[in-house]
Amino acid sequence: MGKCYYLVRGNAMDSPLTLTVANCYMFFFEQDIIKQINNGDRLYLRYIDDIFITINWPTQHLLKEIYRWNKFDSSIKLEAQVGYSTNFLDLYIENKNDELFTEVYHKPSYESYYLPFNSVYSTHIKKNILFGMLIRTIKYCSIFEAYLNELEKLRMIFLLNKYPGEFIEKQFSYVFQKYNINQPLSTKYDNTLRKKMIDVDMKEKFQLIMVKQCSFILPIV
C-alpha cells in the first residue's frame, strides 16, 4: 500500500493501445524470420505476439535457427516442437495419416468454471458465453466425432454451472439460425459449414473495421 511503480518496458495489459503497439513491434520483429523461411515449404501465422510456424527443415538446423531468433529480443522466446502434433493457443493440431485433424485444446490447468447462471450479471452475457463456445467448437473440430465430444463437454460444464438445459439448447439453436444452417449436424459434418461460419465472421469483422475507419472521417464544412 502507498507504493508507486513505474513501467519501464512493455505496456499495460488493459490499455486500448497495447494490442496496436504489440502488433507494430511484432511486425518488425518477424521480418528477418519471414525472409529466411520464405524459400521453403512453410506456413507462417501470427496472432498478436503468438507465432505459429511449420517448416520442413532438419531438426538440428531448426533448433539452431530458433536459438538465433531467440536472441532478437530477450523477452520473446520461440520453442521448437518436432512431431505429428502440436498446440497453438486453444487449438490442437495433428497430422493423422496425412490428414489435418484439429479440435479444441484444453490446458492441463483447465478448470470447468464459467460465469454461474445464478450470478448477478446480465442474461445477455451468459447467452454470449454459450454462443461463443459453440462457435469455437464447430470451427475448431475438423471431424464429427471431435465435435460431438466437445459438445457434450460443453453441455456438462454449463449444467455444472447451473445453466438450465433448455437455456443451453436454445443458445445452441440460435447459433445455427444466425449462420442459416438448416440441416442438423450429422456424420456428414464437413468443412462446408465451418467455412460458412468463418466467411460470415470475416465479413462482419471487415464491416466493423470499415465503420470504425469511417468514424474518423470528419465532414467537410
Describe the structure.
The protein has 221 residues and is an alpha+beta fold. The chain has two domains: 18-82, no CATH class; 112-214, no CATH class. Helix content is 47%, strand content 13%. A hairpin with a 2-residue loop joins β3 and β4 (91-96). α3 crosses α6 (191-214).
List the main descriptive attributes of the protein structure presented here:
single chain, 221 residues, alpha+beta, 2 domains, three-stranded antiparallel beta sheet, two-stranded antiparallel sheet, 6 helices, globular, disordered C terminus
Structural class: alpha+beta
Overall pLDDT metric: 82
**How many runs of DSSP E, i.e. beta strands?**
5
The main sheet orders its strands as 3-4-5
How much of the residues is beta strand, in percent? Answer: 5-15%
- Total helices: the number is 6
Give the low-pLDDT segments.
Answer: 215-221
Radius of gyration: 22 Å
Could you give the distance between the termini? 52 Å
Count of spatially separate domains: 2
The helix/strand series, from N terminus to C terminus, equals HEEHEEEHHHH
Give the fraction of residues assigned to helices: 40-55%
The description of the largest β-sheet is:
3 strands, antiparallel
Shape: globular
